[in-house]
């Protein structure tokens, strides 16, 4: 029997796994093209051995850009049925990954339900869950408590875990010295930072990184190296705290690869548009081409209620410059827990960003659907247009709400329809306008 622990180790040993075969097929690649990318860490296939229903996806800058949807209950919004409805809607709409960020109550049944029933990749942030799991104050938790929760999530079938391994006691001095406008805005990062401040100890996710690697290797859990110091406003973008942490994430990436553990690296955050491409390049250089997983980036700080748009602008630029994985941003960002409609808006915005980037970087087959849409538009073929649309329901509803007098046009121009006129002119037909 062919033995391997992780997809990375399999690829390094030349073993073609079922997951590698499926990902190659989805990406219109040959297996022998994909294998070296998985072996070198440029592509990850997040597929925990205990997540039996997974429909595997590859994440890497040369593959189709993938999108993640954050869900989970909070103390103020704690209905798991509503949360599950959002998961099903997200998967239906094409989310490739669901991160369960629940921060209230017993999180185990929901997490296990997700890995038992959801075919998308499942991610978690064990540091949030540590506080809930033990129902104790943060300062009373020990390093072992945190590591045990990582193991619990791995056993439960979680495919990737965000771990804030890159901040250390040195970061405490950095944050105090450099006086950022928004300090640390990463929820997990702020918990690790607060724990270090209260206990006087080193970051357990950094200090016991080798133990974590053992767990991740055993279950094939991909580590998503969290960026605790991701900028929370434009003024903090590309500052010393962010870049210093990124250097450490690069070192941790290489340590994981030595153990065949798959790694992604998380990134900004809020960032002026002109800094995004350079940030992607720095990450690629420092982290050896490990897939970059970005939250946004949000290109302005002043659009609460519309941050799915600020995030989509940044996401399109980031992905076209090398990011592989976009974390969706909803209109509720900075304001509230997203509801079902916010989730929908966030997914659509991220899908547009991802698709636009895939076209720009020439991902295999990405543009074919745009070409089909162009033909359907030229033919005034409305059914054909719905079949290519990212959100056909909304498109259909808008047309139905304002139907034209003549079926073969739309109510924008009516008989002045340029498409209709050109089709008729080129077919030598009479064009009646009045
Ligand atoms: S009526 Fe105008 S907007 Fe509508 S399909 Fe024709 S050209 Fe396009």
TrEMBL record:
<keyword id="KW-0479">Metal-binding</keyword>
<feature type="binding site">
    <location>
        <position position="128"/>
    </location>
    <ligand>
        <name>substrate</name>
    </ligand>
</feature>
<dbReference type="GO" id="GO:0070284">
    <property type="term" value="F:phosphomethylpyrimidine synthase activity"/>
</dbReference>
<feature type="binding site">
    <location>
        <begin position="227"/>
        <end position="230"/>
    </location>
    <ligand>
        <name>substrate</name>
    </ligand>
</feature>
<comment type="pathway">
    <text>Cofactor biosynthesis; thiamine diphosphate biosynthesis.</text>
</comment>
<keyword id="KW-0411">Iron-sulfur</keyword>
<dbReference type="InterPro" id="IPR037509">
    <property type="entry name" value="ThiC"/>
</dbReference>
<keyword id="KW-0949">S-adenosyl-L-methionine</keyword>
<feature type="binding site">
    <location>
        <position position="99"/>
    </location>
    <ligand>
        <name>substrate</name>
    </ligand>
</feature>
<feature type="binding site">
    <location>
        <position position="293"/>
    </location>
    <ligand>
        <name>substrate</name>
    </ligand>
</feature>
<keyword id="KW-0408">Iron</keyword>
<keyword id="KW-0456">Lyase</keyword>
<comment type="function">
    <text>Catalyzes the synthesis of the hydroxymethylpyrimidine phosphate (HMP-P) moiety of thiamine from aminoimidazole ribotide (AIR) in a radical S-adenosyl-L-methionine (SAM)-dependent reaction.</text>
</comment>
<keyword id="KW-0862">Zinc</keyword>
<feature type="binding site">
    <location>
        <position position="417"/>
    </location>
    <ligand>
        <name>[4Fe-4S] cluster</name>
    </ligand>
</feature>
<comment type="similarity">
    <text>Belongs to the ThiC family.</text>
</comment>
<feature type="binding site">
    <location>
        <position position="410"/>
    </location>
    <ligand>
        <name>[4Fe-4S] cluster</name>
    </ligand>
</feature>
<keyword id="KW-0784">Thiamine biosynthesis</keyword>
<feature type="binding site">
    <location>
        <position position="334"/>
    </location>
    <ligand>
        <name>Zn(2+)</name>
    </ligand>
</feature>
<feature type="binding site">
    <location>
        <position position="70"/>
    </location>
    <ligand>
        <name>substrate</name>
    </ligand>
</feature>
<feature type="binding site">
    <location>
        <position position="413"/>
    </location>
    <ligand>
        <name>[4Fe-4S] cluster</name>
    </ligand>
</feature>
<dbReference type="Pfam" id="PF01964">
    <property type="entry name" value="ThiC_Rad_SAM"/>
</dbReference>
<feature type="binding site">
    <location>
        <position position="270"/>
    </location>
    <ligand>
        <name>Zn(2+)</name>
    </ligand>
</feature>
<keyword id="KW-0004">4Fe-4S</keyword>
<feature type="binding site">
    <location>
        <position position="266"/>
    </location>
    <ligand>
        <name>substrate</name>
    </ligand>
</feature>
<dbReference type="InterPro" id="IPR002817">
    <property type="entry name" value="ThiC/BzaA/B"/>
</dbReference>
<protein>
    <recommendedName>
        <fullName>Phosphomethylpyrimidine synthase</fullName>
        <ecNumber>4.1.99.17</ecNumber>
    </recommendedName>
</protein>
<feature type="binding site">
    <location>
        <position position="164"/>
    </location>
    <ligand>
        <name>substrate</name>
    </ligand>
</feature>
<feature type="binding site">
    <location>
        <begin position="186"/>
        <end position="188"/>
    </location>
    <ligand>
        <name>substrate</name>
    </ligand>
</feature>
<dbReference type="InterPro" id="IPR038521">
    <property type="entry name" value="ThiC/Bza_core_dom"/>
</dbReference>
